[in-house]
Amino acid sequence: DTGVSQDPRHKITKRGQNVTFRCDPISEHNRLYWYRQTLGQGPEFLTYFQNEAQLEKSRLLSDRFSAERPKGSFSTLEIQRTEQGDSAMYLCASSFLDSNEKLFFGSGTQLSVL
Amino acid sequence: DAKTTQPNSMESNEEEPVHLPCNHSTISGTDYIHWYRQLPSQGPEYVIHGLTSNVNNRMASLAIAEDRKSSTLILHRATLRDAAVYYCILTPPSNNNDMRFGAGTRLTVKP
Prior knowledge:
The complex is a heterodimer.
Chain A: E1 5-7, E2 10-13, E3 19-24, E4 31-37, E5 44-50, E6 53-57, E7 65-68, E8 75-79, E9 88-95, E10 104-105, E11 109-113
Parallel strand pairs in A: 2-11
Antiparallel strand pairs in A: 1-3, 3-8, 4-5, 4-9, 5-6, 7-8, 9-10, 9-11
Chain B: E1 9-13, E2 18-23, E3 32-38, E4 45-50, E5 55-56, E6 61-64, E7 70-75, E8 84-91, E9 105-110
């Protein structure tokens, strides 16, 4: 078990471009979360999946953001028409749905929009 | 959602105990109290959690006030590797791994 894996670790893009991030959770985990973190702030919840179903989306997740988790395994987060304000660390976490089960986080994808 | 209040920053000397406070005066009777920490350039990692009773594990201890309106994370002997941002989070019983993070406490450990 290698933990939660995120790819890429860093992404630099120009304003207006589309970007896609990938998260591979721990294999037996059925819940997967996406968070966004800006400098000096705690992670902000974006959305989560239980298996392949997207159960909740934050108001932070504008129409330019879309997340998928086909087949309940890996997940992708796409940002269309990126803006400078999208620059942040995007964190993925997974857990097994059970009482008190803890979240395991990846190391994140650092996005810089120029 | 019940909110938590933590000091922005704290300092400690290496090999001394550290007590990190968290106020959660609006906690409901069934909310769990979780602590995570985030080392530089890494995602958060689980530290400890509890409901009513004090809890101990190999990383830390969690002391929960009798009225549950506050809690304290105790690192028994701080090391340089414990320098991190520590987050205190409440979760509802219906969704115990639905973590909503605040700004946390930045702990600096001095050699």
